Amino acid sequence: MKKFVIAGKYRANYQLSSAMRIAIAQNNYTVGDIRHNLELIKSSLKQAESDNADIVVFSELSLCGYPPEDLLLRPDLYTIIDDAIDELLSLNSNVAMVIGHPIKEPEGLFNVATVIHQNKILVQYRKQLLPNYSVFDEKRYFESGSEDCVFEFKGVNVGLLVCEDLWYPEPTARVKALGADILLSPNASPYCYGKGALRSAEMGARARENELPIVYVNQIGGQDELIFDGCSAVYNEEGQRVFQMAEMAEDFAFIDFDKTSGAIKPSKGYLNQFHGEEEIWQALVLGVRDYAHKNGFKGALLGLSGGIDSAVTLAVAVDALGKENVNAVMMPFRYTASMSIEDAEAEAKALGIEFDVISIEPMYEAFMSQLSSQFAGTETDLTEQNIQARCRGTLLMALSNKFGRLVLTTGNKSEVAVGYCTLYGDMAGGLDVLKDVSKTMVYRLARYRNTISPVIPERVITRPPSAELAPDQKDEDNLPPYDILDAILEAYVEQDKGIDDIVAMGYDEADVRRVIWLVDINEHKRRQAPPGIRITQRAFGRDRRYPITSGFGRQFKSK
C-alpha cells in the first residue's frame, strides 16, 4: 500500500467546479473487527455513489473502531488494516473517501485520515493534538503529526483536521490560511450528558472565527463503558449549526456545498437532539444493546427486587434488547416484604418478560449450617447480610452460564461510590447499567419511563429504598438522604472539591467527612465491579482512577 503525507496544498487535475456534494457516514463500528467495519464503509460508499456524492467522510479510526487501546500494540493489526485499505483502493470509486485508521511509520504510530480516490491515495493527514485526559490516553500510543493539510478536489480546497484538532483555535486558523474553502473533520467524540451543547459551541466558534464551513463527522455506538452519540453536524461560515444527524443512531446524509456563495443545502431536515432524562435514557439503551450484541450475548437477565434500581434497569434492558430477550428473577428471603414480590411481578408483567421466583432461604441456611462451628460465639453482623447477597449473585451467574445471557447488575452511582453494595453478591455480573447514574437521577428516569408506558409501580418510586437484608432496614439508616448524598458526591467525585468547600456549600461537616471517607475506602470494590455505561464527565473507571491502597481518605473520617 502506498502511504505518504502532503504538507500544504495537494493539487489534482480534475474538472473544476464551485460545487461539491459531501456525504456523511455516521456508522456504528466495532473495535478490532476490521472486516465488519470495512463492510460498513463499503455499504456507505455505495450509498454515496448512488447519491452522486463527490466525497464521503467517515469518523475517526473508522477502520479499527475507537478506542482501540492496546490493540494498537499488535503488529498484526496493521497487516489487516493495510489489506483493508488495498481493498478500498481496488474499488476504484469515483467518490473520494476520507477514512480513519492508525498507521505505523518508521518515526512512530499515527492517527490518520486517508483520502482515497479511485485507486490512489491523495493525502494522509496525521492528527496533531492528542487528547490525554479523562477517558483519553492517545499519547500512550500515537505520535503527534506536524503538517497541516489542504487538498484541492474538483475545484474545492478541502481542509482536514481530526477530532481534538478542532477543539483549539490554532489548527483551524492554519488550515484557513492555507486557503481551505471547507473543513472536513472525522471524530470519535464520546458522550456525556451536556456534551452536545459543548461540542456545538466549540465547533461553531471554530467556523465563525475563520469564516470556514465545518463538516463534523462522529461515530455512534457503545464501546465498553463509552457511548458515542453521533450528532454529526455541519456549521456554516457564520458558526451556525445548519444541519445535524441522528442522535444515538446510525445515519447517512449529504450536503451540497457551493464555495462561491457559501451555501450549504442538506439532503434532509435538521434533527433535534434529545434533552434531559430522555437523552440519558437513550444513552443507557444504546449502551446495553451494543454491549450485549457486540459481546455475543443472547439476551440479558437480572435480579428483580421490587426496588427502583432493578425496575429502571429492567425497563432499560427491555427497551434495548426486546422483551423476548430479557428475563428477571425475584429471589426472596425472610426479610423481603410482600409488596416487593408484588411489585416485581407487576413490573415483569407490564414489560411482558419471563419472570421466575427462586427463594434463597435454603441456600442461606446451607451456608449458615456449614459455618456454624466457625461462627459460634459471634454476633450477627454484615456478614450474614452479605451471604444473602452472594446467594443471589451465585444464582444469577448460574443462569447466565446455562442460558448465555448477560447479567445486568443494578447498583447506582451513589451506592457504588460509598460501597453500599456487596462484592460477589449484587455486584456479580457483566454490566452495571446504572453505575454512572445517581440515585436521584434514577428516580427521575423512572418518572420519565412511565410517561412512555406505565411499567414501574408508583409505590416503587415513593417507598423508602431498602436493601431488605435485615428487619425494617432502610438505606437512610446508614447513609444521608440521597438528595444530600448525591450533592456531596457530585462535589467530591465529579468536581474534586475538598471538605471545606463542600461544607461551605451548606452541608453538615460530619456527613461530608463520612461520605468522603466511604468513597475513598471503597476503591477496592469499584475496581472489581463490572463496567458501567458512562453518562457524566467523571465516571468511575476510565475517568476517575484512584489507588486502592491509599491513606488519603483516612484523614477525612473524623476531625
TrEMBL record:
Catalytic reaction(s) noted: deamido-NAD(+) + L-glutamine + ATP + H2O = L-glutamate + AMP + diphosphate + NAD(+) + H(+)
Keywords, alphabetical: ATP-binding, Ligase, NAD, Nucleotide-binding
Any one Pfam family match given in the protein's UniProt record, by short name: CN_hydrolase
Binding, deamido-NAD(+): N386, E415, K525
Coiled coil location: none
Enzyme Commission (EC) number: 6.3.5.1
GO molecular function, one term: NAD+ synthase (glutamine-hydrolyzing) activity
Domain (CN hydrolase) ranges: 20-259
Class of enzymatic activity (EC top level): ligase
Name recorded for this polypeptide: Glutamine-dependent NAD(+) synthetase
Species in which this protein is naturally found: Kangiella aquimarina
Gene: nadE
